[in-house]
Amino acid sequence: SEAALVLFERCLEVFEASSSKAAGVGAGEGEVARTPPHPDWISAWNNCAVTLAQCDRQREAEELLRRALESFDRLLPPDHPDVLCTHNNLAIVLGELGSHAEAREMYARVLEHREAALGLDHPDTLATARDAGVSAANAGDLSAALTLLMRAADGLARTCGPEHADTLEAEALVHEVRDVVLL
Length: 183
Description:
Layout: H1 2-22, H2 39-54, H3 58-75, H4 81-96, H5 100-118, H6 123-138, H7 142-160, H8 165-182
Helix pairs in contact: 1-2, 2-3, 2-4, 3-4, 4-5, 5-6, 6-7, 6-8, 7-8
């Protein structure tokens, strides 16, 4: 993961250098014109942030994901798959940082958009329901956690099959939360 991080950081340096050269085009005196980055660059920021988080550098990952979302907001609609993926990744990082309320809000937004765009039983929608359930459990809302996790487990069993790794993971999480509720 460290080797991937070095490559991503080098890519970010190249981007910064190239956008600095483009800055100033069409700008008035004392102004700096910034053209929005290409969506592929923004997706690279998202990927780099995931790598940062895997290397236990969540604060840097959060900063880069927020930067990506600010740029995406100027270029793409809120239900675009890249935007939703970046929101989902930010929710994961926020949960890891202990910002459970913000993470839950973000998961709710992603889940709503994925349900509308992909349908209730799409694997990406169900993965978001699972992640939102974990976030709810981490925030201490075991009732909401159980509802979301059961929905994810049932949907994944129908969509991916009862023996699929994602189904088994979601079912294990359901049992984990039920065990806590029953204590």
